[in-house]
Amino acid sequence: MTRGTGLSMPLAALVLALALPAQASGTGDLPIITAAIRSGRLIQAELMLSRLPMPADAVEAEAMDGVRGEFALASGATEQALGIFSRLRGVDPVRCDYQRDFGIAAARLGDGRALDALRGAAASCATWQSSQLLGVVLAQRKDWGGSEDAFAQSLRLDPGNAVTLNNRAFARIEQGRYADALDDLRLALRTAPGDRRIGSNIDLAEGALGNPPRRRPGVDDDRGWALRLTVAAKGALRTGRTELAATLLTQAVEVDPRYGREASTLLDTLRAARGGMR
Question: Which stretches of the chain are DSSP H helices?
Fold first, then answer.
């Protein structure tokens, strides 16, 4: 057993406390806080933000609000971030990073103002995240050429990013470009092998191409397998493969009736459309 050291706080907390300044020094600490946010050290960033003094003037207040907005985005407080960057856009309407971060928050919330803000940032201060969100927004509007350009920009900024590849793949699925979508999804899976959204989109695209999924021993429990079969059936229905869809949906219901409600509903609808097939 290790003897006690007499410290009154956990070692990790002590190290963090020693890493922070005893007294915050206004805007002088903002680069340190920004670096903490961008490297994922959100606890440290939050502690340092809480130690900031009152701003000395409007310029200092604006700088502090910008960092608080970036922290809100990084920590998932998206509505708060939207409010902060909305105010900052009023202070400086031409500043690119305010437009960009407002657009990111707006896109996450489904706010229609996202498109103009993200487009405005695309030429001068885009990040992989803002570019891929622009791609998503444009794809939702079926502006396929614009979405492809935005996703390509995102991948230039962060090659191999799984989020961008997955979102571009889904946009390609919506266009009926199933083979192209699978190319993106297989690349994404190398970076994020456990991401279920990627796996689900693979099943959707494979089903559309007429390829039923294969159960993975030790990975797919009954519920998970029923869901995979249902997703693949939806893909098959996209390309008119009704026989395959019916087979997959029947398997899903048989595998796990408790979680096969969606499959059962789809199967009933398909049977009705085909004159009561069994």
Answer: 11-19, 30-38, 42-50, 58-74, 78-91, 96-108, 114-122, 128-140, 144-157, 162-174, 178-191, 196-208, 222-238, 242-255, 261-273
Q: Cα separation of 190 and 1, whole Å?
A: 43
Helix (H/G/I), strand (E/B), else coil: 30:
helix
Q: What pLDDT does 172 receive?
A: 98
Helix axes 96-108, 128-140, angle to 10 degrees: 50
Q: How many angstroms separate the first and last alpha carbons of the chain?
A: 69
Its pTM stands at 0.81
CA distance 203 to 181: 11
- CA–CA separation, 200 vs 231, rounded Å? 7
pLDDT for residue 243 is more than 50: yes
| Residue 139: closest CA among 127, 152, 126, 128 | 152
C-alpha angle 8/11/12, rounded to 5°?
130
**How far is CA 16 from each of CA 42, 48, 138, 167, rounded to the nearest angstrom?**
12, 11, 43, 37
259 with 227: CB under 8 angstroms?
yes
**Cα–Cα distance, 85 to 104 (Å, whole number):** 10
- CA dist., res. 135 & res. 72, Å (int): 23
pLDDT at 25: 52
The answer to whether the CB of 205 falls within 8 A of the CB of 171 is no
Confidence of residue 229 (pLDDT cuts 50, 70, 90): very high
Tokens for 37, please give them.
């946010």
Amino acid at 237: L
